[in-house]
Structure formats: C-alpha cells, structure tokens
Amino acid sequence: MGAAFRMCLQTCCCCCCNFDDDDDDEKQPLVPQDPLEYFNREVQKRRDEETNLWSTPGDPSHTEREDDRLLYSLLQARNKTRMGSTGYRRLSVDIEAMRDTRREVRDKWQTILENLGFMAEAETLLTVSAGASYDRMRNAAAARDMLNTLHSETSIFNTREPPPERYLFILDRLLYLDIAEDFLAKAKRFYPPNDYSDEETPGLSIDLPALLARVSSMNGRGNEDENEEEESGREDET
Q1: Residues 178-189: tens digit of each pLDDT
Q2: Residue 216 in contact with residue 208, Cβ under 8 Å?
Q3: Which of 81, 94, 111, 232 measures 20 to 30 Å from 101, CA to CA?
Q4: Which is it for the CA torsion 153, 155, 157, 160, positive or negative?
Q5: How many Å apart are CA 175 and CA 183, to the nearest integer?
C-alpha cells in the first residue's frame, strides 16, 4: 500500500471519526460558564462510551435497545446499592459480563482491520462518539445491507439479537474508504457462521429477558439484602 494512499487514509480517518463531534462543538457556547465542569463532563462521556460500548451510541437515554436498556439499568441499580454488599457484587458481575460480550465483538472487528493492514488506524476507525448521527452518514443504505450480511453470514456478532447500531457507523466509514468489501471477505473467512441449536448459547451471549427479570427483582429487594447483611454482621460481632 503506497505512501500516498496511507496519507489519504489518515486524512479520511480523521474526517470520518471527528465529524460526529464537530457539529456538537458548534452547538456548544464558545465560552462555557464553567470550563472545568464542561471538560470533566466531556471526559466522563468519552470514558463511559469506551467502557460500555453502547449499541446505540446516539441514544443518550440508553433505552432504545433492550441490551442498552439492561446495561443502563444494571449501572443505575449498582449506583443505588451499597458498595461491597452482596447485591453490589452480583450487579458488578452482570455488568462485566455484558461489557465482556461487547468487547469480544469489538476485538473481532479490530483483528480484521489489523489483518487488512490498518494497525495504526483500527482504534480510530472503531471509535463512535455519542454525537453519531444517521443524517451525516454517506452510505447509510449500503452500510445497513452490509451490517445485515455480517450478522447473517458470519459469527462476528455471535448472537441472534439484532446487530449493534454502532457498527453501522463504522461500516459507513469503511465504505467511504473503499475497504468494506475486503472487510466483509475477511469476516466470512475468519468468523464463518455457526449452526447453533435452540439449547446452545453462543460465546458470551446474555439471556436478556432473564437478566432483566433478575434486575427488577434485585431492585425490589436491594434494601432487604443490605439489612440482612447488617443484621448478620451484628450477630457475628456478638
């Protein structure tokens, strides 16, 4: 791959990955009332996105998709639970399980991009900000078709659930860079489709309905668990 193309790719990557934030910046006042608070909020927003890898990054409420809604509910429930309690530990295990599932998918995408020669650009190409907008996509229809193809003809997502919308924006970038077809070919080669029976659970997939029911149950009895732990601790002291 020539140096000229590499320079063009770096320029395109910067444009593709930063345009989401540009419009958001234009909407912000030139001089925030509290610059430190604004900076801290932006840092926290980016850290939150990198940690949770929201399936629909443009949804600030995290309620449009069931998996995002579940992860957000788990995080909210843990925030209301006493740190160190049994309930807190259970919630932390569930949260990390969901994050691991999302990281597993992202790692597959990164593996393919690096295999295509984009070792330095992979991280940037896979970064989707909360300002991602369908209106600013260049090849939305083609990206949607390719996302569905990846979901049905490969095991890169390893789940029967609809594929995360965040990868729609990534495919739009790959189409713009004219490397989407190469990515699809590699995905079919590296991650061929799996034929799972109804009883089998692929990879790190999560039983969303069961976990949602458990979260609701824990929300209702969270204080009871903490009270039981406190009473048990007092009994041990006596």
Answers
A1: 999 999 999 999
A2: no
A3: 81
A4: positive
A5: 10
